[in-house]
């Protein structure tokens, strides 16, 4: 026991000497700090959206559950109620997480404008307008024009970040060079102010619309989908272990840079995983050997889901920082039901090297161990379609119909908690130092 404690203490010292200074430099860089602080603004929206999503998607499948006891009767009643009121229940999620990129571009541009001591409100509205020019182009229908909000969700976060930063940089450059429409001194400031914003607005609009059209000409897809267009050939792979380890690693890397990693890979992997799940279910019903190890949500439940819950555990039971503790309590309901946006934007895990390193290590380790445990018969293969909002340990059990899968999941969770321990303690210390400096 003493040797383990000594190891963690030595590792903690290495972290504080080597990694924490790098993390501090990253967090203090103007643009990265604006990104971090801009995403922090999203916390209340993600919490509200996550809770609404959890209520609207109860963890129950009416085709497999029977009202044999009070608890199952409650779940069935909840599911029926959520189905009847789905339109109303979906409003908070559709207008928070569903259009999260709008809040991202506003938050990031606002924070960066503040660091330059620019008029923050006018500049963040400029950034929002420019973002809508490439991500929310109105579509003509028979009874009017509509904006498809699917282009404003988490899949467009990276584009929102780029627009938010670049627009403010262009506006700042124009201010430094005094390039603006000047009104006579006799014109009141309230009247002259909007005209000063007009030129930066027009320049940014033309620049991004032109860039968007050029990218469409080259790739067939616009600026918002550029990252997916570039990386989709790399993601196209089979469901073998090496390809899955590559894909889950890429997912973690995407999340680190503010790109919705799951959305990035799902267009390629979902048909493969769904097909594998259907084949497994048919084999299970026929009493035959189940063919596929990786199926359904295997890589998430035995991958990033464990990492997020390990982070949540540390926020509630290890970290002493008041901000992390408060967010940890708020994030419990949504995180338990696999809705992790409050952690992604609240901690945040975006551009946070102290959560990225253990997340990458643990995700690769988790998927590899779960794959090996399944391959060698230590737990059953995924063969059941289970609601994605079911808490991850229960999901592991019900999707495989094997209690050993839950034990494998719990073992991986304990390992993840240990791996995250020095990183989260270092992050806790970094936040305390930053808060002390801000008070001074």
Automatic annotation (TrEMBL):
Function: The phosphoenolpyruvate-dependent sugar phosphotransferase system (PTS), a major carbohydrate active -transport system, catalyzes the phosphorylation of incoming sugar substrates concomitant with their translocation across the cell membrane.
Organism name: Massilimicrobiota timonensis
Annotated TM spans: 34-56, 95-113, 120-137, 157-175, 187-208, 241-259, 298-319, 343-371, 403-423
Cellular localization per UniProt: Cell membrane
All residue ranges annotated as the PTS EIIC type-3 domain in the record: 15-423
GO cellular component, one term: plasma membrane
Keyword annotations from UniProtKB, A to Z: Cell membrane, Membrane, Sugar transport, Transmembrane, Transmembrane helix, Transport
Descriptive protein name: Permease IIC component
GO biological process: N,N'-diacetylchitobiose import; phosphoenolpyruvate-dependent sugar phosphotransferase system
């Amino acid at each position: 026991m003493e040797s383990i404690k000594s190891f963690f203490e030595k590792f903690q010292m290495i972290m504080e000497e080597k990694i924490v200074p790098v993390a501090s430099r990253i967090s203090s860089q103007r643009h990265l700090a604006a990104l971090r602080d801009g995403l922090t603004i999203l916390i209340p929206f993600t919490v509200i959206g996550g809770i609404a999503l959890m209520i609207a998607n109860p963890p129950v499948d009416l085709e497999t559950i029977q009202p044999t006891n009070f608890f199952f009767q409650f779940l069935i009643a909840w599911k029926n109620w959520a189905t009847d009121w789905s339109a109303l229940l979906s409003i908070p999620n559709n207008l928070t997480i569903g259009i999260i990129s709008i809040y991202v571009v506003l938050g990031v541009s606002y924070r960066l404008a503040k660091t330059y001591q620019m008029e923050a409100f006018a500049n963040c509205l400029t950034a929002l307008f420019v973002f809508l020019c490439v991500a929310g182009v109105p579509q003509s229908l028979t009874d009017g024009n509509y904006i498809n909000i699917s282009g404003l969700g988490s899949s467009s976060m990276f584009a929102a970040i780029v627009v938010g930063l670049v627009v403010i940089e262009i506006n700042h450059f124009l201010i430094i060079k005094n390039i603006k429409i000047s009104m006579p001194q006799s014109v009141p400031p309230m009247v002259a102010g909007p005209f000063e914003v007009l030129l930066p607005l027009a320049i940014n609009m033309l620049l991004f619309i032109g860039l968007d059209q050029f990218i469409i000409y080259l790739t067939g897809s616009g600026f918002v989908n550029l990252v997916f267009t570039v990386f989709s050939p790399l993601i196209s792979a089979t469901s073998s272990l090496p390809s899955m380890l590559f894909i889950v690693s890429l997912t973690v890397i995407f999340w680190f840079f503010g790109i919705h990693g799951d959305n990035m890979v799902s267009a390629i992997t979902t048909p493969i995983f769904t097909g594998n799940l259907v084949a497994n279910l048919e084999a299970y019903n026929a009493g035959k050997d189940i063919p596929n190890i990786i199926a359904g949500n295997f890589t998430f439940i035995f991958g990033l889901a464990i990492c997020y819950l390990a982070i949540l555990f540390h926020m509630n039971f290890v970290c002493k920082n008041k901000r992390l503790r408060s967010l940890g309590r708020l994030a419990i309901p949504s995180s338990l039901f696999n809705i992790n946006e409050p952690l992604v934007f609240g901690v945040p895990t975006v551009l946070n090297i102290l959560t990225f390193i253990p997340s990458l290590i643990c995700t690769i380790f988790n998927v590899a161990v779960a794959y090996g445990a399944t391959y060698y018969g230590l737990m059953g293969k995924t063969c059941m379609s289970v609601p994605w909002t079911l808490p991850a340990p229960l999901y592991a059990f019900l999707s495989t119909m094997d209690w050993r899968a839950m034990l494998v999941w719990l073992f991986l969770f304990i390992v993840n908690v240990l791996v995250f321990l020095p990183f989260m303690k270092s992050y806790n210390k970094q936040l305390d130092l930053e808060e002390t400096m801000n008070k001074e």
